[in-house]
Amino acid sequence: MLSWGFLEVIGYVPAVAGGDAMVKAANVELVGMEVIGGGMVTVAVRGEVGAVRTAVDAGAEAAKKAGKLHCANVIARPSKDAQKVLTLAMTEGEEG
């Protein structure tokens, strides 16, 4: 079942470090990065629940080492309507 994982960091370098660590730690797809403002960046991945949890944990550690991690979150098996609140294409077959 498809799940989503998010890292929210302060700065571009921790975002790149976190995203890199996430895709190297587990079989997840990097969906994208979005600059929120105020120096905050969100990095999003999708994949199976266990893989996403592993990836987010690894990404959070890497982001902490490279700079500042604001938060990390996994949404396991989101509802089909949850996509409506995101600007990223989190479901398969959709483009941002």
Report on the architecture of this protein.
This protein has 96 residues and is of the alpha+beta class. The protein has 2 helices and 4 strands. It has helices spanning 12-25, 49-66, and strands spanning 2-10, 29-37, 40-48, 68-75. It has a 4-stranded antiparallel β-sheet, covered by helices on one side. Helix 1 runs antiparallel to helix 2 (49-66). The protein is globular, with a radius of gyration of 12 Å. The two termini are 21 Å apart. The model has no long low-confidence stretch (mean pLDDT 89).
Total strand segments: 4
Sum up the overall morphology in one term. globular
Can you count the helices? 2
Runs with pLDDT <50, length 5+? none
State the secondary-structure class: alpha+beta
What gap, in angstroms, lies between the N and C termini? Answer: 21 Å
Strand content: 35-45%
Strand order, biggest sheet? 2-3-1-4
